[in-house]
Design brief:
globular, 10 strands, about 40% helix, two-stranded antiparallel sheet
Length: about 240
């Protein structure tokens, strides 16, 4: 029986490797000025996505280019709402100029991590997305605060898993400060993803299997072996009757 999965990647973050990655993706998340990216980058990456028929998402973050959006910033609810809204609308304006549409929103870095557990932050993100086109989807982790509030507010949510990151038993990602946080070998990346998609669970770093539903899998574009890993992953999934959507 054929299964289906979306493969996404965070792009427009200054690595300039989008042309190498795009052929293996079915969706992408484009940085829109908070942690990286500008209008020209958004245009360039969106054009590549259109060429390869890859769905386009906004990748808003805390306004923190210095730390690449990887540190939480204390902000009022209104200020955080405004910066998220401004980033997404900057990408929407670019897409409209190209007759393209926004498919989804996926927060970046510290904003994403905080919204998985913090109700207030999650609600701010959901409120911004709700004001967009009805068809815009939210990418969020399974059983996270962000996904639960999104579903409760009538949003379509795609549960996201991570191909190249190890998990804790509470389904949070192991901190990048830990040397076991990142999965490097292509075979291990495939096995990690195949278990999620085919069995609906993830084997944590402690060896415990925890239920995990995934609709989309993120492969990090800054991984040193990302092109090799993506090519191998997509080939092996197709060989095992898992179609990339």
């Amino acid at each position: 029986m054929t299964k289906y999965i979306d493969i996404n990647c965070d792009l427009g973050e200054g690595l300039d490797n989008e042309d190498l990655l795009m052929p293996f993706l079915s969706s992408c998340n484009i940085a829109c000025g908070g942690h990286a990216g500008d209008i020209e980058t958004m245009k360039r990456v969106s054009k590549l996505a259109e060429k390869h028929k890859v769905k386009i998402g906004a990748h808003p973050s805390f306004p923190d280019r210095e730390n690449f959006g990887r540190r939480s910033i204390e902000m009022s609810s209104s200020d955080l709402s405004n910066v998220i809204d401004e980033q997404i609308k900057a990408l929407i304006a670019v897409l409209k100029s190209m007759n393209l549409k926004l498919h989804h929103v996926k927060p970046h870095g510290a904003l994403y991590n905080l919204a998985t557990t913090d109700e207030k932050t999650a609600q701010i993100i959901i409120d911004v997305v709700k004001r967009l086109d009805d068809n815009v989807i939210l990418y969020a982790p399974f059983q996270s605060m962000m996904s639960k509030i999104g579903i409760a507010n009538g949003l379509q949510v795609m549960f996201e898993g991570f191909a190249d990151r190890n998990y804790n038993e509470d389904l949070t990602l192991i901190s990048r400060q830990n040397r076991d946080a990142v999965i490097h070998k292509k075979e291990a990346v495939f096995e990690h993803v195949f278990r999620m998609v085919s069995q609906g669970n993830v084997r944590t770093k402690n060896g415990v299997e925890v239920a995990l539903k995934v609709d989309t899998i993120c492969v990090h574009g800054d991984h040193e072996n990302v092109v090799e890993n993506l090519k191998y992953l997509t080939q092996k999934l197709e060989q095992n009757s898992i179609k990339i959507l």
